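User: Before I run my own analysis I want an independent prediction to cross-check against. Here's the chain; please return only the structure tokens and, at the end, one sentence I can use as a sanity check.
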Amino acid sequence: MQSQEEIRQEVWGHLKNSQCAYLGTAEDVQPRVRPVTLLNVDEKFWIATGTRSQKARQIRRNPNVEVCIPLGEETCNGYIRVAGMASAVYDDALRRRIGDTFGYFGGTWSGPEDPDYTLIRIHRVEIEYLCPGSNEAHTFIVHTA
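Assistant: Structure tokens:
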């Protein structure tokens, strides 16, 4: 049986600096799910989007979000699910530093001051992890500042 720390290390081993994930938000009572590029920088989760996008509007109304990353190349029988609170980041230096790690940033926005660029941070994070081939999910909290 793995320790909690071993499970945490296994989860961080699956996470890439940038990867496709599925973001769940709420629009009134209707859940909305879409693929996004999820960044993992300094063990913190980030999403960049247009300020007028549906996801940005939904997060402003209800900051509770979940992100799901399927694991397992062929069977997708494992996952990492990240639940947390999302908020926009307004610090230009941080917006530039994180924005520069998105491969599409320069082709989409003029810079960190672009009014159509919204950087979203997911914090107060709970992670649920189902290892591919396993039937037992593990849940733990990530304390982020």
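Sanity check: The mean pLDDT is 92.
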